[in-house]
Amino acid sequence: xxxxxxxxxxxxxxxxxxxxxxxxxxxxxxxxxxxSVSPRHAALVAIHKPLGAVLLxxxxxxxxxxxxxxVPALPGEIPAWQxxxxxxxxxxxxxxxxxxxxxxxxxxxxxxxxxxxxxxLQLPALLAPSVWLHGVLRGAHGVIAYLLMAxxxxxxxxxxxxxxxxxxxVLASMTGGRLPAAAPASPPGEG
Amino acid sequence: xxxxxxxxxxxxxRLAAIAVAVGGLAAAFGYAAGWFSxxxxxxxRLVDTLEQNFGVHPAYRRNHAKGLCVVGHFQSxxxxxxxxxxxxxxxxxxxxxxxxxxxGGNPAGSDGAAPLRSLALRFLPEHGxxxxxxxxxxxxxxxxxxxxxxxxxxASRPQADTGKPDPAKLAAFFQAHPETGAxxxxxxxxxxxxxxxxxxxxxxxxxxxxxxxxxxxxVRWSVQPVAEYQPIxxxxxxxxxxxxxxxxxxxxxxxxxxxxxxxxxxAYDPTHDATRxxxxxxxxxxxxxxxxxxxxxxxxxxxxxxxxxxxxxxxGIRASDDPLLSARSAAYSExxxxxxxxxxxxxxxxxxx
Lengths: 191, 353
Fold this sequence. Notes:
heterodimer; A: 191 residues; mainly alpha; two-stranded antiparallel ribbon; B: 353 residues; alpha+beta; Catalase HpII,  Chain A, domain 1; ten-stranded antiparallel β-sheet; 10 strands
């Protein structure tokens, strides 16, 4: 079997660090705008829609790259069940990141709203208007937002645990930082 | 063996750093969501206060609950194109789905007692973006801030014994909100129209029109009835349900018409304050005729599932700095979410026959 790389490919690292602050900003904007009636509401909505469209493009691009590239393995001493859990949590993150903008777009369409990204640019409707679907999707959009936030908090905690406590190179494989001396590392910046 | 099996130096500091990072992000999320500011005015609280005043009437709008759908078209004469690049102002015919209503959150409210009428319109040009506007018969709005609107709802809450607002509370509200003066002056002298068809409707807020060169001009719009205004008749005052039937009678004789007026503001005309009218004799462009051809009950009608959000604007019309626009957009969305959820639930409960 071909050796897995020690670092994530540069393309995935760039996409990860580009999307991370945008996704967090998006979640704060989303929960903020639905809890506001001040002029901030309209200003946040005006960011939320085009940013959601950008994130949909980015996550689809990232999924394509992720599926076509080899990525680092977790250290062998991590128990198998933990490895499976880690893998599942990453699948969940991808699923939520793909689902959320699509649900938002579909929900707006079902509500009969034009999905205007900015002046002069409108997305086509993803669904025909339906109050039933609007209700379901509006509920789902909120649930996915909270699930996403919870997953990101777990992801952050696990990443920092690897980086600060275990110091096993898992965090470094995404930050590009120095790997622990004992880890079987291939040189950074490859491939 | 890797180094990972040995405990790192300063373990408590490292654990604390993780807790701070994770807790900090969670706190930022909670802060944005308003968890730490229960006093924040949210769309939910705004709609809650309407529900407290008027009761919860499942599947109905939380305000202007009683109304009917109207369908027709806007016959644009092209004059609006001078000041706005919006597709609907180009010469031609644009389909319109509208809604005529009376204020208040009670779908069984009395037409005869209603102080004004409202008209919401959705313009759907075949090519180009749609425009929605929600207009009132009053030329100015009663308050100029969402805090004022919320305080007014609280001051006008019906009392348990009389079913009417406490006059002392209302008086105290108006005392504390001098911006309501222009609206109260209008309400004192204006008599509601005898029909939905012979009332003018005003966009209330200022917006900006953007022309083909990108030049912005402040605007307030209204539709002026071609039918002559008639004050409400004495016997209509006691009639809880005459506006819809009266409209159907008129429509049986032919379409109803209004002229769409775009009134342009000049330097220093306020754009942020819906309680302050602009000086008279501002230039006004007659952009064409709104023609209403038929009306239909709201239940199952083409306007029922439409949120007449005043911030659904086409390219060529921009929001102004009026803070009520954002507030209305947020509250309408909350009302729409609640009533569509209820509508779906009611439909699911209906016996299959």
